[in-house]
Amino acid sequence: MNGICLKYPILGLLLLLPLAAHAAEAPVPNLEARIAAFEAQRQGAGPDARSRAIMEKAARDLAAALPDPGLAVGSRAPGFTLPDAHGQPIRLADLLEQGPVIVTFYRGAWCPYCNLQLKSLRESLPHLEAYGAHLVAISPQTPDRSRAQVEKDDYPFHVLSDLDDSVMKAYKLYFELPVEVRDLYKGNFDLDIEAYNGAGRHGLPVPGTFVLDRQGIVRAAFADTDYRKRMEPQAILDALDAMQ
Fold this sequence. Notes:
Layout: H1 2-7, H2 9-25, H3 31-42, H4 49-65, E1 81-83, E2 89-91, H5 92-96, E3 101-105, H6 112-129, E4 134-139, H7 143-153, E5 158-161, H8 166-170, E6 174-176, H9 179-189, H10 193-197, E7 203-205, E8 208-212, E9 218-223, H11 233-242
Helix pairs in contact: 4-9, 6-11
């Protein structure tokens, strides 16, 4: 093929065009619509009144405790080195040397809203990579939990574990799950956070996403204590495009 490209340079260019065209033509997922469809399917299967009251109080308390979660646009993102799903250390500084980085924090493999977001980001990868960007997803869960998630859902991006909660705290997203919510999760939903995060660890991040330029400056950010709200893939692409 190299000989053909050298002899017929226009033909060589045409042979490369389908790859770029495929990325450009693939639709960008609408995460809000995907979440709305998920919630419509679950309608009528929500928690009972007592459980709902506990969760609503916890949501109000969290919103009051973290009225403006996450890093501000224009700030410098703290560096980190975290293990991936296979225990290999990944440094933010190394990724920034290669291009922009999207850092997204999620609660864990047990969270259906997080899984919808990660699926949408996976489908958006051709668009992100067209800007030379890397995607990093961080949760407090242990690497073995992340490895099972990566293998099950076929995530080709970095899935990292914040095992001492330091990165979630540095990005101003960390909170402790209240005891009454932990008990509710265990008793009503058969969900033990410690089984994902490790013994004695009940911390979670407010879901947040940050688009970093190559200098590590936050160029776009989204974080909301309402875990049902996430940054749209199109908003990430708009931020990357504005950096060109």
